[in-house]
Amino acid sequence: MVFFFAQSLSILEMARSVSRIFSGFRCFGSLPFGNTQLKTQCPSVLFRTTSERTVVQVLPSIFSRKPRDFSLPNSSWGEEMMRLYNYYNSQSEEATEGQEDHGEQWTRLPSYNRSLKYATGGVYLSKIIQSKARLFTRNIRDPGAAFEYVVFFRQDKQRCVCVFQAGHLLEGPPGHVHGGAIATMIDTVTGTHASLLSAPVMTANLNINYRSPIPLGSTVLIESTLDKEEGKKKFILCSVTSTDGSRVHTEATALFVSISISHLLRG
Ligand SMILES: CCCCCCCC(=O)SCCNC(=O)CCNC(=O)[C@H](O)C(C)(C)COP(=O)(O)OP(=O)(O)OC[C@H]1O[C@@H](n2cnc3c(N)ncnc32)[C@H](O)[C@@H]1OP(=O)(O)O
Predict the structure, then answer these.
(1) What does the pLDDT look like over 144-153, one tens digit per residue?
(2) Where in the numbering of this chain does the Thioesterase domain appear (predicted)?
(3) Which of 114, 160, 190, 206 is deepest in the core (most CB within 10 A)?
(4) Ligand 1 pocket residue status of 148, Cβ below 6 Å
(5) How far does the centroid of ligand 1 lie from the alpha carbon of residue 257, in Å?
(6) Is the CB of 119 inside a 6 Å radius of any atom of ligand 1?
(7) What are the domain boundaries of the chain?
């Protein structure tokens, strides 16, 4: 669809259009950290400053069908978010460079805005989910406006840690994060955790105790641990704390039940 539209424009008009389409996507390579993987993911930065020939060379990667991984840094990530991302990411890099991974390192979990489509290659879900469906936590294009987060997993400890920066659109009480947004993030982290144990799962029960408000714009840690498994039930514990651990914001327990895909087709 995007490609068809672009064919009817001149190259430069096309470049401007695509640039606008991708306007929410900042160039990771301009940020002060040296992850080469990030630098390869922002070809649109060349549009305004290079010749037509270069633009043409760049276009194929623009129209790549590779989905955006939202768990990678963008320009809205603050200092604390970046510090923690770099901390956990450096430990997960060791796992890939090291000899053998026995689950003793953190693994960064990629995050897409149409999780099931990408997880299944789109074959199944393209038939049953409307084309405009997007994952709730990844559907706001303006970087930093809502849910900015990355989840890491440690298999040996059965533990997830999520670094979450709460944007200005998540306001509940003045200057603080809405309880529903906090619940959403707890559901997301514990649900991701339960899915790693045995996907697919659905949330059957979520109990939340709000202990102290989370300032809007701040970065917090959301940690989940496996409490117990009973057949198709997974019980997960979760806490939301300040990044230094000194302040407990929220505590929760969650129950996930394994389902079969046919469960989702019952309507
Ligand atoms: C990448 C991002 C990840 C994000 C993750 C987000 C996940 C979500 O938000 S899911 C959306 C919200 N959840 C839902 O809509 C679920 C709606 N509920 C359902 O579909 C069903 O009730 C479901 C799937 C939970 C359970 O149904 P079903 O598979 O038939 O299980 P069922 O046989 O009734 O119960 C299985 C066991 O779970 C227990 N159980 C079920 N529901 C509950 C509950 N609410 N509380 C406590 N126990 C429960 C049952 O007692 C039973 O226990 P046991 O095996 O010991 O007898």
Answers:
(1) 999 999 999 9
(2) 175-245
(3) 190
(4) no
(5) 5
(6) no
(7) 1-66, 68-265
Catalytic residue among 142, 187, 227, 244: 187
Confidence of residue 130 (pLDDT cuts 50, 70, 90): low
The arrangement of secondary structure in 68-265, i.e. its CATH architecture, is: Roll (3.10)
The dihedral of CA 61, 65, 69, 75: what is its sign? positive
Residue located via tokens 């068809």: 4
Rg (CA), the chain: 20
**Strands laid side by side in the 233-242 sheet:** 107-109, 147-154, 159-166, 219-230, 233-242, 248-258, 201-210
Compute the average pLDDT of residues 67-78.
95
Across the strands, what pairs with 220? 164, 242
pLDDT-derived band of residue 218, with 50, 70 and 90 as boundaries?
very high
Complex ipTM: 0.97
